[in-house]
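Appendix B. Chain record.
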Amino acid sequence: MEEESPFVGWVSDVTPENRMSTPAASPSSPPLIARTTAGLRLLGLCAGALIALAACERADARVSKETGTEAVVGEGQGAASRGATPGDPSAPAEAEAVAGQATYREEAFELAIAPPAEAKAGEAAEAIVTLQAKPPYKVNEEYPIKLKLGSSAGLTFPAPVVGKDKATVEVQKAVMKVPFTASAAGEHTLGGTFSFSVCTDERCLIEKRELAVQIAVR
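Structure tokens predicted for this chain:
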């Protein structure tokens, strides 16, 4: 004998109007697919803007590199470039021009450069640099004294630096010969940076002075 189900003959008192149902989407609300599409479109626009900005920055960097300038970052609108880079043909030459004086008289020393007694075009000649220490100072015999020559139109030199091998160094005095050759007659300027040292028993001075002298060439 089959068992009778306890739900047989049971009648629900819930009316069809009160039964739970999925609410219909509001006519004014966009479908989920439409909202998702709009969000993806906005995300794509943002990504495109970032890519375009990066491309502009790369283009600016490429232009700066090609024109030999370095762009100033973070200094506001109209910021200028920092100038020509080394090796730019438009950059000024770095040759050391002659600038200085023929004589220095100071507490610890006297320093002078003198032209040769005579100089002829096309012939070798020598200018003379003299360092005279004043007591209690003495010439530092251990220091590698030198004259780094500046660029001098019309004059040529065996080497750009005249070293200690061209000098006679004594206790109170050092004399350096500066060889040169003039290419043409006229007035020429010879000079450069002279490095030297003078000492007492307690201390040493390491000095540099700019020397320059006019040479009359005939």
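Further analysis of this model is presented in Appendix C.
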